[in-house]
Amino acid sequence: MHAYRTHTCGELRKSDVGKIVRLSGWVHRARDHGGLLFIDLRDHYGLTQCVIEPDSPAFAAASEARSEWVLTLTGPVVARTGDTVNADLPTGEIEIRIDQVEIQNRAAELPLPIFGDLEYPEETRLRYRFLDLRRERLHRNIMLRAKVVQSVRRRMVDQGFTEFQTPILTASSPEGARDFLVPSRIHPGKFYALPQAPQQFKQLIMVAGFDRYFQIAPCFRDEDGRADRSPGEFYQLDFEMSFVTQDDVFNAIEPVLHGLFTEFAGNRKVSALPFPRIPYSESMLLYGSDKPDLRNPILIAEVKDIFNREDVSFKAFKGKDAVRAIPAPGAAGQPRSWFDKMNEWARGEGAAGLGYIVFEEENGALTGKGPIAKFLSSEALQQLATRTAAKAGDAVFFAADKEARAATLAGQARLKIGNELNLTRKDVFEFCWIVDFPMYEWNEDDKKIDFSHNPFSMPNFDHEKFLALEGSDKDTILGIKAFQYDIVCNGVELSSGAIRNHKPDIMLKAFEIAGYAREETERRFGGMLNAFRYGAPPHGGSAPGIDRMVMLLADEPNIREVTMFPMNQKAEDLLMGAPSEVSAKQLKELNIRIVAPEK
After folding, report:
1. pLDDT of 403-414, one tens digit each?
2. How far apart are alpha carbons 494 and 237 in whole angstroms?
3. Where is 492: in which H helix or E strand?
4. Which residue from 28, 228, 403, 469 could staple onto 322, CB 3.0 to 4.6 Å apart?
């Protein structure tokens, strides 16, 4: 018999009754029932109930056992009878009669219990992550993550992609966040950077003549943590393709994502192929966001023209850049306090408030109530109802401001209303592509043109005319769209992607428009530009985030619940004690001196 186990703790069934078996694992729970001692033994695979009687020679050793002690138990498999069967447990029809007990290791008093699902402070959970990972929910999430990665790899290979690894030590590059820098011992005063993404390398792979690349890529960004973003590092399904249009990229990756989510969705549905494609401007208008949650049926409408009518006397909205109307279907039945809370919520978001109209029906005609309704003529009220698809029993809220601020507030109100009125479906994964992002945007603070999304994208604009653009062509420049796209699921951005700018003259011009001198662009991206001068194919790709996909599939609100060893929001690894100080000898080898920050 094996020294530790003949079976796992999740393996035995009724067909094994009569066998002499050996199990090893952790004491999940020990219970004394009138002399009979029950031990629930747990390992990676499951849990088996074991029982020992007081007259057994092994009883003394078994009775010592406490939670999370590591034991090896040997004995026959017996069938449970009657109401002792546990239908919720795969091994619930059997138990082990313990003949032998071997204590492999004792456990100190636990800082957090493994049995049960009580909430514990994040600091405790991260400091004792090895214990936290034994808990059922987190253990299940990490196994889900592993299965997702396996499935992704298989599906990408089936789509004709080949996995390559790109360098971890590379040059610093402006990717939108701060780099993690690594000092060079051999080259004093110089630094490597950990890659924020394999962006340039994967494009160089295309230039090198490989056709369809992918990897489960680690990415490193020195940025603050959020619920959907880990500080420090994260993983993405990075892929790139040569000789492709935007549609080719979509057609290649959609089956991978659809198949992946269908595989792990459980009882939830996944939106049908092909995924909807929503232009950026339309998304900002209808959903108030470039990552819309399509589970929510509410559509926002622009109604500025209605409030500018002569028969509308509500002066607060007249002359506003944007007036967005957010329908609230069925909200007429809500108490006045609900509307007041919505208004207070809007003020908490920095807005002046959130006006509203409640639609009713009197003598067959649509009428309006609320603080704004009396300022609208019946014709304007009807036009508003038509524009927002509102009917009697519905309400409509309003956000009026500069266009960007009105869109943002309307988008947040849409989500809040959808959740509070139970309109947002919970049983579906709704995917969409956001396309036609603007290539540039106006930076009001610096009074200059900036890239709006991805600086390596190909502009969707006549190339000869693009090269001829001057600084005075501001309106034309701000109207240029790019071959950029985001994939969104349930309001979570999974990735950004683009058809890349593979022509050196177009790339230099694109950066010049954004204020980069040609010399600076050559210095920062010289490796890629030089490669493009030797015959670069048209290419494009994207990089859906592994962490975020697992977070959605596990139905977890925080990315740390699907990451094995995450940092806290201060970018600290409480388990290993990182970041940590290093010795004077190490600093000397790297030619580095620590300068304390000024207090």
Report:
1. 999 999 999 999
2. 10
3. strand 492-499
4. 403
